[in-house]
Design a protein that fits this description.
The chain folds into 2 domains: about 170 residues, no CATH class; about 80 residues, no CATH class. It has 8 helices and 4 strands, in the order E-E-H-H-E-E-H-H-H-H-H-H. It has a 4-stranded mixed beta sheet. Strand 1 and strand 2 form a beta hairpin.
Length: about 260
């Protein structure tokens, strides 16, 4: 895969029995996404929060895979994170649990952050809910949580960790392959139609990603999201073309 090749600058370590490799593009893209008014210390904190959050997400996948006697490995690269495991050896239910464990781990991290903020800074559940509703764009609740932070770095860390693990977690659950939600949808569709489930999964992904790409690009203010969804729409179009060619040449694939 382009952008994942090993380099002399990769960071490598092993924790909880799972090897991890961090590609240098991971740091670059994370910094670009967090660039805020050329404030390097804030960008640095953002990168740390992205690193911790994505690592927790991938460990959710990896630890669940280990639960099913697999030998996972983790790669953090420019487009986020990947957890490699022997998916072809898993049953559909096991594969579904491995996929959903990633977002689940991120939501759990967000919950831990809120619990710690409540215990040590007295932030109430209503104040947490106010921030989350504002992040989701579904309301303008009280932002009193910010007033209880002792310094600006606590405030930024609290905000960044909730933004990444809740917003990105929900985004990752959209039915768009290869996001976790798209992979989960493909497994469910294959349960109902083994022969065509994979194809229908890519059709749904193409439609959802295409609509979101157009919607994000219309205002001109969410160009990153437009590119993000447009990239995934293109990927799914390519996959549909590949499946079509396989069908023409009589090449069958076992989706289970």
């Amino acid at each position: 895969m382009v952008g994942t090749a090993e380099t002399p600058f990769d960071l490598r370590f092993r924790a909880l029995g799972i090897p991890v490799r961090v590609h240098p593009f991971f740091w670059l893209i994370a910094a670009m996404l967090g660039w805020r008014d050329q404030n390097l210390p804030v960008v640095g904190l953002w990168v740390v929060c992205v690193f911790v959050s994505i690592l927790v997400h991938e460990y959710g996948h990896g630890l669940m895979a280990k639960r099913f006697r697999e030998s996972p490995s983790i790669l953090l690269w420019g487009m986020g994170g990947l957890c490699y495991s022997q998916g072809e050896r898993q049953t559909p239910m096991e594969r579904l649990l491995v996929i959903l464990a990633g977002p689940g781990a991120g939501f759990l991290l967000a919950l831990v952050v809120m619990i710690l903020a409540t215990l040590f800074r007295g932030i109430t559940p209503d104040e947490h809910l106010g921030l989350v509703s504002t992040l989701l764009g579904v309301g303008h609740g009280s932002l009193g949580a910010f007033e209880k932070m002792h310094n600006i770095w606590e405030l930024f860390a609290y905000y960044f960790l909730l933004e990444i693990n809740i917003m990105w977690g929900l985004l990752n659950l959209l039915p768009i392959w290869p996001l976790d939600g798209g992979q989960a949808a493909q497994i469910v569709l294959t349960w109902f139609d083994r022969a065509r489930g994979r194809r229908w999964g890519h059709i749904v992904s193409l439609m959802v990603a295409g609509i979101l790409a157009v919607t994000a690009g219309m205002g001109g203010e969410q160009i990153y999201l437009a590119i993000f969804f447009g990239y995934f729409a293109f990927l799914n179009y390519q996959m549909l073309q590949t499946l079509h060619q396989q069908h023409l040449f009589g090449i069958e694939r076992d989706d289970w």
